[in-house]
Amino acid sequence: xxxxxxxxxxxxxxxxxxxxxxxxxxxxxxxxxxxxxxxxxxxxxxxxxxxxxxxxxxxxxxxxxxxxxxxxxxxxxxxxxxxxxxxxxxxxxxxxxxxxxxxxxxxxxxxxxxxxxxxxxxxxxxxxxxxxxxxxxxxxxxxxxxxxxxxxxxxxxxxxxxxxxxxxxxxxxxxxxxxxxxxxxxxxxxxxxxxxxxxxxxxxxxxxxxxxxxxxxxxxxxxxxxxxxxxxxxxxxxxxxxxxxxxxxxxxxxxxxxxxxxxxxxxxxxxxxxxxxxxxxxxxxxxxxxxxxxxxxxxxxxxxxxxxxxxxxxxxxxxxxxxxxxxxxxxxxxxxxxxxxxxxxxxxxxxxxxxxxxxxxxxxxxxxxxxxxxxxxxxxxxxxxxxxxxxxxxxxxxxxxxxxxxxxxxxxxxxxxxxxxxxxxxxxxxxxxxxxxxxxxxxxxxxxxxxxx
Length: 453
Hints:
- This protein has helices at residues 5-13, 15-26, 38-51, 121-138, 160-166, 223-232, 255-263, 268-275, 286-295, 335-348, 372-385, 402-408, 433-451, and strands at residues 55-59, 67-72, 80-86, 106-108, 111-113, 144-150, 175-177, 182-183, 189-192, 194-195, 197-206, 212-213, 300-306, 316-317, 320-329, 355-362, 365-366, 390-392, 411-413, 418-419, 430-432.
- By secondary structure, the chain is an alpha/beta fold.
- Helix 2 (15-26) crosses helix 4 (121-138), helix 4 (121-138) crosses helix 13 and helix 11 packs across helix 13.
- The chain contains 13 helices and 21 strands.
- The radius of gyration is 23 Å and the shape is globular.
């Protein structure tokens, strides 16, 4: 039997009510990039923690989105599990690609569509309602529970470390269940054991005090061409970053990790067909792409703009050119150290005058698949789904997991309820309703396995 039968039955019997709560929360816009609806959404989340029987409060810092902190005590165990989630969402644009309004969630064909229903409001509700299920049936959860629900994850969790540093005792725990979890394209549960780090920058190259007529391109310098030449210095055709010292602290996977990676399915298998690519970057093989997603740093151009991009023609020599870049990092790489190497590299190549704005600086974090928490999740997946889970050594994405795992020396992982085709950050974001129940049972079974129940 998965969990206490009363808990499992409560989860089963209340699925429609849980979906209504996801709809309630996702109906409130909370776009951190625009600072839209953040305070209102934080208030709703705080109320939801209190509604399940927990204690909640809003932590605040000047200029920061409120952090919702909640807790539920238990007499059954001295251990504490912390659930981290975020209530902010990505911008909903482009609106014309949505089949239904992004902030009016709609059920269609067994899925719930709306901005944030997966990332991360649906996951957040699944955690809250799991604990509600214990309280309603057993009077208390199987261990102490803490909730950390922030409102700035989609803009780099700018103030999360400050919140934790100011209130270190509040966030102490024995394990962290991270924000997100997924089922792969075959419906297999995925145990996510880590995230890459990231440096996110904006570069501005200026060559003139104002735009000029392009007839003067015969004599005046081009900011755009200068930016193109700069970018050409960062990465070679084989995807290797050319900045000296960038790989000094990059470690290859251990032999047992490599064996595990080889045995596991990977999202790399779906990438070419999903995104219409003819081949992997740099001509990599599938095996190399699987490894790269886990263990290799990246240098990505996220956006680039300059001059005239409207309809028709405008003969202009732009005065400046702009570029946003994200560098994904792996364990042991230090963002501050690498940023300094990047700045030095630009100076050494004649680009010391380029304006660089740091937007995000996050180290990577990774939990061993051998840890008690990982093994509890793997065992829980087998018990709930009756099949072996996919063990994802590290996500190719980024999140501030390091704030908890490094400070408190605890394990953290991702498990949850979302399908791999949830259209995160895209129009028509969704969750499959049939995954909600099983995902919640998996969460509960993982916690109980970790506690040795």
